[in-house]
Amino acid sequence: MKLVVVSAGLSVPSSTRLLADRLTTAVQGRTPVDVEVIELRELAVEIAQNLTNGFPGRRLAAALEAVTEADGLIAVTPVFSASYSGLFKSFFDVLDRDALAGKPVLIAATGGTARHSLVLDHALRPLFSYLKAVVVPTGVYAASEDWGAEGLPERIERAAGELAALMRGLSGTTRPAKADDEVKVVPFAEQLAALRPTA
């Protein structure tokens, strides 16, 4: 299976990339995946050109293809003005509108203060719902004070487990059905409930 990680961090080193790496490692600990990381800051010029002329450059075209072909996606952005960054949004603006349909996506964000944590539910989740992605229940927000504190590692592990389970469930690795096979339909709400940790 292929996991693509989109990081919109602008600095080097970047807390956004650090969070993306930790989420990736947690997913790899649960299911075997081939990982491709896309650093949007390296594609900023090509993204801007694509917005103005309608044609992706070579590196941007490869990134868009990787996202389209992925079995799962981790999308991480820094928070600017209480929302995702313009670079992050511009990348998904140039992506084909059906590229994420049915694709499992883990959303995450970083910011200087915990007051921006609602960006996950008020900006990122609606964006990916509009793109018809299957967004895992647990989003991960990391404020500056969260690094090294209690809570963040647990959220990372929970979100990674949800993404890994969805990727395994949606992968086409099962054998073809036979005529005498019993077909069992499990409602999506029950599938999500099975992913939640039990007390």
From TrEMBL:
Keyword Flavoprotein found: yes
Keywords: Flavoprotein, FMN, Oxidoreductase
NADPH-dependent FMN reductase-like domain sequence ranges: 1-147
GO function term, MF aspect, one: oxidoreductase activity
Domain of life, source organism: Bacteria
EC number(s) stated in the UniProt entry for this protein: 1.5.1.-
Keyword Metal-binding: no
PANTHER family xrefs: FMN REDUCTASE (NADPH)
Stated name of the protein: FMN reductase
Organism whose genome encodes this protein: Streptomyces griseosporeus
The organism's taxonomic lineage, starting at the top: Bacteria, Bacillati, Actinomycetota, Actinomycetes, Kitasatosporales
